[in-house]
Amino acid sequence: MGTPRKRPLLLGHGSAPRASDDHRLPNGHPVSGASDFLTADLAIEHYRIYRSPSYFSVSWRLDELRALADVQFGKGVGEILFPNRTVVKKSAKTGRTRYAFVDGELVASVRTSDGHLTLTARGAKTAYSSGKLVSYVVVNKEGEVACLQGKDIPARSVVEVGDILAGDEVVVVGSKGVIGIGRALLSGEEMLRFDKGVAVKVRKHIDEEAPP
Prior knowledge:
By secondary structure, the chain is α+β, with helices and mostly antiparallel strands. The protein has 6 helices and 10 strands, in the order αααββββαβαββββαβ. It has helices spanning 40-51, 58-73, 77-81, 121-129, 141-148, 188-193; strands spanning 87-90, 97-102, 105-110, 117-119, 136-139, 153-154, 158-161, 169-174, 177-184, 198-205. The strands form 2 sheets. It has a 6-stranded mixed beta sheet. A 4-stranded antiparallel beta sheet has the order 1-2-3-4. The protein is elongated.
């Protein structure tokens, strides 16, 4: 669907290089403590946003969410997923961005463990319908049944993939459109190559999506 993402330095992911002198926060500290799936450039941008006097403004929060969405789901997804009318809610404890609502409906949350976005049904459908989403898997009938039952999706049921790395948040697509959301346990290439093993751990199937 969308344009494949450029994959900058991935910290702690496989044999990728660790943070170096070229990847340091503005305070001089290396970015070696970043999440396994967080790029060095994005970690530095996070630091700048959180330390900025303008961090708590709505525009800064929207920019943050859009940047995250572009990195995770494909270039251009951020502006479609988070239009200007997006209402952003912060954590009462930390003051950091936690939830994004559009027209009163939750579309995404920022996961506290690693700062990545998790999508709701509306968010997944919006991202997929944009035509720019790269973090998706298309499954056959077996995969549809497994997803709608809340079960993990086997690799043998995956028939098409986007630009996916293990650990990515992915949108699951069936014959009639988006049917679920989950976490990739394999890369897209591995999903198509393997006949055994789990490709996607389903987090939500659309029928069980609760209102915010």
